[in-house]
Write a structure and sequence with these properties.
MAG_DAG_Lipase, 34% helix, two-stranded antiparallel sheet, carboxylic ester hydrolase activity, Rossmann fold, alpha/beta, Lipase, seven-stranded mixed sheet
Length: 253
């Protein structure tokens, strides 16, 4: 029988009710909704409804995560989308790191959304390429989160399961071929310096999607976990402006 693990305090999924514009906001690999809470609350203060799902296996225990597949993470993301759909929200998709990767996959396969926002979306992780092949350890040390701002605590695991990293690599491997199927308006956000995911990932995404309306924003003073870093307010302003612009454009059209 599989052991059950409790969710870490503060790592739970959450929903903030607002207007009829809904945003799915996903955390990244090893992270939890806690890493996007400040941005979610700021967007909610601007009127938007925001749901931040806890992707399966995250925020509990690394052995719990080890049993999960990238399909499980996609299903967690899908449930958040369905939650907003049932409430008749106009839906935007948003995600950081692997959350951005899931955003791209979902947008390529669903066309009833208003737009997408990615933040340092992951398509390659050069430092972990060596783990594709055996022999490899069961777990590797996770290290400190890639955040430039000092004294920021992110809820995460101290160790990352290699099996989970391989699932992430599978996900990153399948998404590039789907990018041309994305036609909705897109806001692609990247950090000028990212010690985890090369900023060129976002440039590739921007160039590869088929969206006629798309823009790219570079954050000058943040690292990978940008939603917890110095440029947090820039993210909130850029996202709010982007979302409202799409809504106004549809109203005029």
């Amino acid at each position: 029988m599989r052991e059950e693990y409790a969710v870490m305090p503060g790592a739970e999924s959450f929903y903030l009710e607002g207007n009829d514009i809904g945003i799915v906001l996903s955390h990244g690999f090893i992270g939890t909704p806690q890493s996007v809470r400040d941005v979610a609350e700021a967007l909610n203060e601007r009127g938007f409804s925001v749901i931040a799902p806890r992707l399966k296996g995250h925020g509990t225990h690394q052995e719990d995560m080890e049993r999960c597949t990238h399909e499980d993470w996609y299903e967690s993301y899908s449930r958040a989308y369905r939650f907003l759909k049932k409430r008749n929200k106009r839906i935007f998709l948003m995600g950081q790191s692997m959350g951005g990767t899931l955003t791209l996959q979902f947008a390529a396969e669903h066309h009833d959304i208003e737009g997408i926002i990615t933040i340092n979306a992951a398509l390659t992780l050069p430092s972990l390429e060596y783990l594709r092949h055996d022999p490899a350890p069961r777990f590797i040390e996770e290290g400190a989160p890639d955040i430039k701002k000092e004294n920021v605590h992110e809820i995460t695991y101290e160790e990352a399961p290699v099996q989970s990293i391989r699932e992430l690599q599978k996900l990153m491997g399948l998404v590039p071929a789907l990018l041309h199927r994305i036609h909705v308006p897109a806001l692609c956000i990247k950090s000028a310096k990212d010690n985890v995911v090369p900023p060129e990932n976002t440039s590739f995404i921007y160039q590869s999607i088929s969206s006629r309306k798309k823009q790219i924003v570079t954050l000058p003073n943040s690292y990978h976990v940008a939603t917890m870093d110095h440029d947090q307010h820039t993210i909130v302003s850029a996202v709010a402006d982007f979302v409202l612009d799409q809504i106004r454009s549809k109203a005029v059209g």
